Description:
- With 191 residues, the chain is of the alpha+beta class.
- The chain has helices at 2-33, 35-39, 43-47, 78-96, 135-140, 167-175, and strands at residues 51-61, 64-73, 100-106, 122-128, 143-148, 162-164.
- The model has no long low-confidence stretch (mean pLDDT 80).
- The protein is elongated.
- The chain folds into two domains: 2-39; 48-175, Diaminopimelate Epimerase, Chain A, domain 1, CATH 3.10.310.90.
Amino acid sequence: MQVRKKRIYRIGLGIVFGSLVLCGAGGAAAVYIGPGKILGPSYEEVYGSECRTVAATKTKDSDGIWIRQYIVADAQDDLTRMRTALRVAESILKEQSPHLVQVSVVDAGNPGTVANMRGRAIGAQVTIIPKPVTEAESNSGPYSGFSIQGSASTDGEFHGIRFEAMREDLEAMASKFEELKGCAAVSGEGA
């Protein structure tokens, strides 16, 4: 009877110890490899951040409709702002199929008029021309954009280094979008 109790005790102890080693190895692998490779990239790493529209304009010329939208995003870095602008631009392009789409990300502290949402007020901007008409449009390609490194100052302006996005990088980002989600509706300011 004593031998049997010892054997059961050893088996139980072996199971507990083995499961602890297995869990520890799994945790170590997760730390070594990184959660991004195990769980996949986060929503923000693919699509950018949540946003809301603060102003939108739509104009028509001989080439078609031009849509410009100014959005406020919860993004703290330039790459996330760029992804957000690209996602919103692709969403507009899919819904309305205009000649040109331009989405600009501004800071929440920015003055609410369109006239003030220019220059340093823009933290990232993406322009998509799906079917270029003029030679200048053809030379620039269907995708163009830029982002400003760093966060906005207290007056809502970006004073960091400006990075021009390469067309290939924007196309690669856009190809990862499985779902296209625009911003919350226009708040009524600035238009």
